[in-house]
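Protocol step 4 of 6: record predicted structures for both targets in the notebook before any analysis. Target 1:
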Amino acid sequence: MRKGLLVGELLSAIETMRSPVTEDGQLAELHRALLNLHLLLRSERLYDKNHPRRLAALEKAFDSLQGATQRGKFEVYVRRDGLAVSPSGSTYLQDARGEMQSLAGVLTQAGIKQISFKNNLGLAELNIFVELIKVSLISPAITAGQTRGSRDAWWATQLAEHAVKGILVNSQVDRKVDTLLTSLIAALVAYGGNSARTNAEELIRLPDHDDLAATLTLLARITLPLENSRALSPEDGARAIHAAMEEARHDTVRLLLSAVSQYDPEEGELPQPYIVRLSENLILEYMIAEFAAGSITPLTVRPTIDGFGALLVAAGKYATSHSSDNHSSLAQIWSSEESRERFATRFWLALAPREKSLVLRGPELWAVPVVALRHTLGNLAKAGADAPRREARHILLNYARRLEHDDWRARRLVAAGLLELCPIIESLWPNQFPEDLSRGALQALEAENNPQAGALLASFLEWLSRIALTRADYAGFEAILLALENTPRGGNHAHLSGLMKRMVAPERWTLLIDAALANRPLDPVLPRLLVRDPDKLLDRMTLLLGETRGTDMLAAMSRLLRTMGQPVLSVLETRLYEARPQRVTAAIKLLASADPDRLLRGLTRTLSSWEWNMQDLAVSELSRPANASAAQTAAYIFSSVLASAHPLVVPMMIDQIGLAGERTAIPQLMEIAAGEHPILREQFVRIKAIEGLGRLRAIEAIELLHSLAERRAGIAFAEPSGLRAAAQDALARIEERPASPSVRATFDAPTPTTALYAAPRRYMRVPLDAPLRAQVGAPSGGAQASLARVKTISLGGAYLEGPQKFAVGDSLTLEVRSGLRKIHCTAIVRNTAPGGGGVEFVHMKDDDRDKLRKLVLRNLPNS
C-alpha cells in the first residue's frame, strides 16, 4: 500500500467530507412521497373522512406517490429502524427527524412488512389503502396473534375485495435469494477448503493490502448473481458464482471463506445487506490492524477508504459489464460519498481508546470525522466527573487551534465541525466560554481568505455571540463586536458585513435592551452597546411604554438614558417633532424623566401642534415632584406658551406658574382674569388666573381683583358668583387678611405628597364623612356611564372608587351628586390604585364651580 501521502492529496480526497451530501434525485422523491404518506396517516387518525385537511393530505400524498412511480414500480421494506427501498431493501432512506422510523412503526402495527407501489396507482386506491391501515390499527384482533402467512392473506383478501391493483402488500416471497446465498457458501467451501498443505494459522492470518484487494474484487464480482436473483435461475446463479471462483486465486477464495465463517449471515438477512456488511468488516479489520502498526495515519484514513471504495466500484462495473445495470448495488453503495463518510466514522469509533486518545490530542485531529468526534466528546461530557470533562475541553480547544492550518480545506473542515459541536461546547462551558475559543475564531476569521471557510467561521462566531447574550456575558459579546468592527472590509471579507448585521439584528438588540431595563444594577457594557443604535433602543422603549408594565419600567429607562447621555437624548428630542403620536408620547415621558430641560425646550416649538392629551401629558409630567429642580424654568416656559395651549391644559399650567412664583406671568394673568385675553376667556380659566395672582401675592392686581369682586351692572354684580368668590379669596391672600375657610381651602394645601398623589397638591383635600355618588363617562358620550363613589374632594380634583378601571391620562366627564345638587365637570385621571384613581378637574362651568366651593367649605374641618 502506498504510504506517506501529502497533506494536499489527503485534502483533495476528503474536501467534501463534511459538506452536505446531495441526495440522489429518485431517493429524494421517494423520501418525499413516504413523508407525505406519513402525514396522510396522521390526518386519517385526527380528522373525519371528508375533512378538508384530510382530503388535502390525500391529494398531496397521491401526487407525490404518482411522481415517484413514473419510473416504474418501487418497493418499500419496513425495517425495525426505518424504511428501505429497492433493490432488495438495501437502501435506507434518510431519517434526520425520525419520520421514517415513526412510519415504520405504524406499518409494523398494521402487519405490513413490504409495500409495492405501481405506476397505475389511483387516488381511490390510496384512499382505500389508508382506510385499511386505520382499520387494522383500531382492530388489533385482525393482526394480533396471527401468523405471518395469515396476516399476508388478510391484506391480500382486503385489497382484492376493494379492487386495489396499484398497491401490493407483503407480496414478495422470493426464496431464490436464500438458495443463491447457500450456493455461494458451498462454492467457497469447494474452492477454498483446506488442503493438506493448509494449516489453521494460514487460514486466520491477517491479509495484506494485495490480499484484501483481491478478496474485495472477488466479492464484487460474485455480487452479480445475488443481486439479480429474480432474473437468474438458481442454476444460472450457481454457474456465475463458480465462474468467478475459478478465475480467482486459491488463497483469495480461502480468505473470503474465512471472512464468511467469521461474519456469517444473520437470520433473515438479505444477500445484498450481507455482502455490504461483509465488505465493510473486511476493510475495517484490516485498517484497524494497520493503524495500530502505524502503517495508516489519521491523514491517510480517508484516502485508504476511498481507495478500497474505488476498487469495489471498478470491480462492480466489470462484473455487470454485460448486464442491463451500469453498477451493482455494492458498487453503488461504495461509490456514495455519504456511505464512505459513514464508514470512516465507524472506523474512528472502533479504534482502541489509547490510539484514539493519541489522535485527539495531536495536530491531525482535524482529519477525524465530526460525527465520531461528537460521539467521543458527548460521552466524556456526560460522564459527570471532572477528569472526563477536562479531557473533552482539552480536545475541543485542540480542535479549534486547527483553524490555523495552512490549507484552507482543513480550516473549512474545522469550522464546519465547530458548528456541529456547538451543543457540546455549550454544555462543557456552562458559564463562560474560554477566551482562547472566541479570540482564536476571530483571528482566524480576520486572516481567512477563502469564502467558504470564512462563512462557516462567521456562523460559528454568530453562535458564540448569541450564547454570550443568553448568558448575560455582555463583555464577551462586546469583544466579538469590536473585533469585527476592526477587521478589513470588502474583497474576501465581505461576509463580515453580513455577520455584523446578524449580530445587531432586532431580536439581539431586544435582549440587550431588556437586560438594561431589568431590575438589577446596570452592567456598564450595556450602555456602550446600545448607544450604537439609538433608534432601536427608543423604538423598544416606545413599545414597552405602551404596555401595562411600561410605567413600572420608566425609572429604569430614565437611568439608562442618563447613563448613555447626549447621543441618545438628542435623538429622543427630535422625536418630539414627529407626526406619530405614539413616538411623541413616549418621548415626552422619557424626556420628562431623564432630561426635563430638553422637553421644556421642545415645548416652545411644538406645543401648538400637539393634541390636547399630549400637551396635558407633558405639563403633568413636568409638574411632578421629581422635576422640582426644573419647576421655575417650567413655569417660565408655561407662561410663554400659555396662549398656544389647549383650554383643558391651561388650568394646570396656571397653577404651576403660581406655585413656582413666576412673577413675569403676572401681566398675562391679569389680562386673563379681566377677561381681556384674546383667546383665554372661559370662566374656569379666569378663576384659575385669579387664584394664580393670589398665589403670587400680586399687589399690582389688587385694584383689578376689587373690581371683579365688587363691580356691578345695575343692581346685580357684573361677574358671576364663582369668579367673585375667587377674587375675594385672592385679595385676602394678597392683603394678608385673617385666613377664612375658603382661603385655606384654596391656598393652604399641605405640601407633602404621597405615593398615591404624585403631583403636588394645589388645594386642600377634604375627606367626606359620607361618600358622594358620581356618574362617570367619556367626554364623547360613546361609552356607557358607570357609577363611582367620591371619598375625598377638593377645588382641584377628587378621588374616585368604583368598578371602572382607570388609566392615567384618561379624560372623563363627572356628575357628582350632593343632595339635590349636581356638579358637572371634565376631569383627567392623574393616578390609579386598585379599585379607584385620582382625577383633576380641568373644566367646569361657573355655577358648578360655585357648587363645588360650597361643598368643600361645608366639609372642611372646623368650618
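Target 2:
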Amino acid sequence: MAYIDAYTAAKLKEKLTYEPSQLGKLYKSKKNEYQLKSVEHNLVDDLLREGWEEYGKPLKTKTRLRKKKEFSTKFEDDIWCQLYDLDFRHLNFSNDFKLPFGKSKSDKKQIDVVAINDDSILLVECKSAKKPTKPPSYKSEFEGLPQRLNGFRKSLEQMFGKGKKIKYIFATRNIKLDRLSTDVERLTKTGSFFYNDNTFDYVNSLIQKYKNVAHYQFHALLFRGQEISKSPIEVPAIEGKMGGKTYYLFSIEPHLLLKMGFILHRTRVNDAEMPTYQRLLVPSRLKGISRFVQDGGYFPNSIIINFSTQNRRLNFEANSRGKDSNSRSGVLKIPNAYAIAYIIDGQHRVYGYASTDYKETNTIPVVAFKDLESTEQLEIFMDINQNQKAVSPTLRITLEEDLYWSSDRVDSRMKALRSSIIQGLGSSISGSLFNKISIGEDKAILSANPFANALSKSGLLPQAKVNSYVGDTSTSLYNIKNQNVDKEMSKTRDSIIAFINYCYQFVEDNFPEIYKSDKNFVISNRGTYAFICLIGSINSYESQIGNVDPSTKADVRFNKIEKYLKVLFNEITQLSEHEKQKLLNMLGAGADIAWLRSFQSIIHNKFKSFEPLELIDWKERQSKELQETGRRLGTEIEKNIKHHVIKTLKTIFCDNWDLEIGSIQRDCEKRAKEQSEKLYKEGLGRKDIPWTDQFFITDYKKIIEKYWTKKPDGDIDDFKTFEKIFSIDAGYGFNSKSEKIKWLSFFNSYRNNWAHEGTKEQGLNIEEVEFLKSIHTALDI
C-alpha cells in the first residue's frame, strides 16, 4: 500500500527541477541579494510605497524594480546556491514543498531546501535572525523528529525509489545554538546534521578551494561513518610494522579513496573532531596537479592515511610469511564507508585526480595506518611538513593544544592552554569574539598571535620555563599546586574564556561606537594585546588586594574589574580626534605596548593605587629630562672608553696598534664605507667617515679582554693597564676578569635604549640612569 498517493507524489515532483537552464536562472536569481521584477510604468508608485526601488534604465513599456530580500529568504537562497555549487542538480524551485510524514492531511512539513543527486537526498530546514540571537527551545521539535524522519523516508522512497541516502539538515544563521547544547544533542541523535554559521563558512571555503570536487569532502562531512556500499573494497597489500605500529602498503584507484577519504581541516566546523591539522588546498596547486595527471604525469610517492575503523572491521587476510622478512602479503578488505580514511599527507595528489580521466583507471600508492591515536596523526603531519611548506603561525598556534596538552613539560602545557583558550574564544557561538579570530585555516579580522602573546604576558596564566614556573604566579587563574593537571587546565581554560568574554561583551554592549569602528582600540590586533594585558594587570591588582583568587567565578571576577573598564572607555570616548589618531596611527612593534601603557595610565589617573610596576617603569622611560641625563652620561662614557682603548693600544704597540686589532679594524672600515655610501645616497654628498668612529662596544670589550694586563716594553710613567682602568664593581661580583668588566655588557644594552628611539620600551628608567652615573663616577670622567 502506497504511503502517499500518486497525485501527491506528482505534485511534489513538480516543485523540483533538474532542467539545466531553469536551474541556471534560479542560481543567478538566488545569488542576488535583491528580488528583481519589471512592471508596467503605471504600477511603479504603489510598489515604491511597498519598499521597492527603481534600478537601471527604464524599458520602453516597463520599469525595473528591486527590493532587498528578507534576511530569512536570503539565508535559504544561500543554502540553495551552496548545494548547487556542490553539484546537486535536482533542487526545489518552489518555497512550498510540503513533505508528508504521516497519513493524516495535517502530517506535512514545509522543507526550505530540497537537494538531490545520484547518491543522496538532502532536506534542509533553515532558521535565522538578523542579529546574533539566543535560541528558543527546540525540545518539542527535535523530540518529534524521529517520527517525522521515518515518514519523510517513506515518502521519498515512494517518489524516487530506494537506495538514496537521506539526510535531514537543521541550518542556522545568527542563532547562538551551541553545538554542545541539549537541543543539538537531541538533533544529532536522530542522525540529522547541525549546519551552523561555522559549517556554512567552511563549506564556502571548500567550494572556493576545491572547486568542482568539493562534494567529496562535503559528503564525507554529512555521512561520516555510513556505508557507501555493503561490499568491502579488496586490495592486494603488504602488512608491516614501523615504530610499533601496524601499517599496510597497497595501491588503490583515486575515485575510491576520494569517497572514503576525509581531511581534518583545522576549521571551526571540525572542532568536535580529534586534532585537526590540515591546511585547505591551494587552488592553483590543485589545478596544476590535475593538468599534470591529465597529461600523463604521475607521483611515485605514497599517500599517508589512517583508517579510523571504530565499529567497522578492517580485515587483512594474510598469506604465509616469508623467511627473509617480517612483512607479509595478503588481501586487505576495507569497509566501504564515508570518512573512514583520514588523509594525513597527500590531499593535493588525491584531489588532483578528481577532475581527470584517470581517477578510475590509475592506481596510487598508499601507506595506511590503523586507528592511530589523535596526537600520533598530528605528529606524523608535523614531521612530514616541517621540511616542506612551512606551517603558518596561526595554524601552529592552533595545533599547540593537541601537541602539548599532555606534555611532561610545564612550559609546553601552558602553550597548549593558551591555544585552547584562543580557540574557545573564537569558536564559542555565544561569545563576542565568535568568528573574529583566525583559527587554523579559518581567516578572520583578528590574528591568533596577539592573543597568544597577550595571554603569556597578562598574568592570567603563569609563565614557565621547561618544568619550572617563573616570576610571580600568585595572581594567575591557574592553581600550580593542583596535582590533577588535566582537570586544572580544563578549569582554567573555561574560567579565562568566560572572563574574557564578559570583558569583550561589556565593550560591545556599552561602547558600540568603539567596538564596531573600523579602527578601534579593542577589535584590532594591537588592541587585542593591549586589552587582554590590561584586564590581566587589573586582575593581578585585584588579586593582590584580596578581592579575587583563582577560585573566583568569572562573573564575580568581571564585576570586580568593571569599574576600571568604565573609566577607560569613558575616557577614550572623550579623547579629541587628534589624540585618538595619535594613538591609532602608532606603527611598529612597540605600538601595542604603548596602547597598553596608555590604557593603564588612564585608569591610574582615576584609581591612584592601581600602578603596575611596568607602568612606573614606562613612565620613567618617557621622561625627557631623565633621557637627556642618560644620553649625556652614556655619550661621555663611550667617548672615555674609546679614548682609553686607543691611547692604551698606541702606548703598548706604537704605530702597529691598528695591525694588532686587524679583524676589528676591517669590520670598522666596512661600516665606515657603508655609512659614507648611505650619506651620499641620501643626498648629503661625499663624506669620509674615520674608521675609528665605527667601534661597537663589543669591539672595545674584545680588545680589553684580550690585552687585559698587557704592558708596553720598558717602564712608562703613569701607564695603566686595561685591568686598572676598566675594572668596575657594578654589583655583579669582582673576582674574575669577566665579573670586573661585566658592566660593559649592561652598558651596551642600555646604549640601545638611548641611541635608538624606536626600541620597544624606548628610553632609560631611573635604575638604569643611576647605573650610568656610577660608571661615569668610577671612570673619573
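Step 5 preliminary note on target 2. The first helix runs from residue 6 to 14. The chain has 31 helices and 21 strands.
Proceed to step 6 after PI sign-off.
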